[in-house]
Design goal:
By secondary structure, the protein is of the alpha+beta class. Helix content is 29%, strand content 24%. It contains three helices and four strands. The strands form two sheets. The chain has a two-stranded antiparallel ribbon. The radius of gyration is 15 Å and the shape is globular. One of its GO terms (biological process) is endosome to lysosome transport. Belongs to the small GTPase superfamily. Rab family. Keywords: GTP-binding, Nucleotide-binding.
C-alpha cells in the first residue's frame, strides 16, 4: 500500500479475502510507455485458500511477501510459491515470474 499511495500505515490490519490497489507508472526514455499496475493483496489464512486461488489464476506475475518478524510467515513462502506455480501458467505452459 505504501508503494501505491505513498502512505505508511504503522498498524497493519490483516487482509480478509482480497484488497485491490492500482498504480499508474510512466516509463521514460526511448518510447514513452504508460503502465497500469494492479496489486492484489490476497489473504494468507488457510480458510481463504480456495477463494484466493480464483483471484490469481490468470496473473502474469506475482510478488510474494512475508513478515520479517514472523518466522511462520517466512516458512509459508514455499507454500505460496508452490500454490502460484500450480495454479497459474503463462501462454507457453511455463510458470509466471515471481519476486520474493
Amino acid at each position: 500500500q505504501r508503494y501505491v499511495s505513498n502512505c505508511f500505515i504503522e498498524e497493519y490490519m490483516c487482509t480478509i479475502g482480497v484488497d485491490f490497489f492500482t498504480k499508474i507508472v510512466e516509463k521514460h526514455g526511448g518510447k514513452q510507455t504508460r503502465l497500469r499496475l494492479q496489486f492484489w493483496d490476497i489473504a494468507g489464512q488457510e480458510r481463504y485458500t480456495m477463494l484466493t486461488r480464483a483471484y490469481y489464476r490468470y496473473a502474469r506475475g506475482c510478488i510474494i511477501m512475508f513478515d520479517l518478524t514472523d518466522p511462520i510467515s517466512f516458512d509459508n513462502v514455499k507454500k505460496w510459491k508452490k500454490a502460484v506455480d500450480s495454479t497459474t501458467l503463462d501462454d507457453h505452459s511455463a510458470t509466471i515470474p515471481c519476486l520474493l
